[in-house]
Amino acid sequence: MKILAITSQKGGVGKTTIATALAVAAEQAGKSVALFDLDPQASACFWSDRRRKELGEAGGTPTVRDIQIARLPSYLEAMREAGADLVILDCPPVHRDIAHDAASAADLILIPTKPEVFDIRAMQQTVAAAQQVGKPAVVVLTFCPPSGPEAEQARDIVRKQGADLASVSLHQRKAYGRAQMQGLAPQEFEPNGKAADECRELYNAITLQLYGGQHGKKGQSRKRA
């Protein structure tokens, strides 16, 4: 079982959007996956509630659980015993103790950031925190404008910081917000759209980081937390 923590010291950078999109992508790839919502705002749980309302019984997957950080080790062990392939941790901003404990449990830390000055500053702090716990970190740029120098400038800063940079960036696209409001991922809301392509590319990049050449088990029955 692999554990992916999605974290940033700053809010509004797309953590839950990415977490839900990657969870759906993992299920579509045949993996047994759970999404643990560690954020007191419980945005991922809200997404899951909307999903059940929109999709009915089919909205019960992927599994989303509201988890208190003190109970995280027990829930992770339960998922490991159940044979899960992947657990995604949706971490809150600001709460450094929660982020630290989640990062310590993770195999990989994904750090979303907008290509803006205050977000970049927060990203640098999050990368430093990941480096302190000795875990690999990947930065993904989010809400990138369609033109302008900001995204490339942000990439230069990430490289100088010593963190890996995801090969795909997520852009400002309406499909992200519209999918979230329906409890969907962009791949489901607009399968042939650009947002869906970005999510699939990000999932493939993260899978390569987590599993190397082994893309996990496919065609198995999905297990629930």
UniProtKB/TrEMBL annotation:
This is ParA family protein. Residues 4-184 form the CobQ/CobB/MinD/ParA nucleotide binding domain. The lineage of its organism: Bacteria, Pseudomonadati, Pseudomonadota, Alphaproteobacteria, Hyphomicrobiales. It holds the Pfam family CbiA. PANTHER family: COBQ_COBB_MIND_PARA NUCLEOTIDE BINDING DOMAIN-CONTAINING PROTEIN, P-LOOP CONTAINING NUCLEOSIDE TRIPHOSPHATE HYDROLASE. InterPro entries: CobQ/CobB/MinD/ParA_Nub-bd_dom (IPR002586), DNA_Partitioning_ATPase (IPR050678).
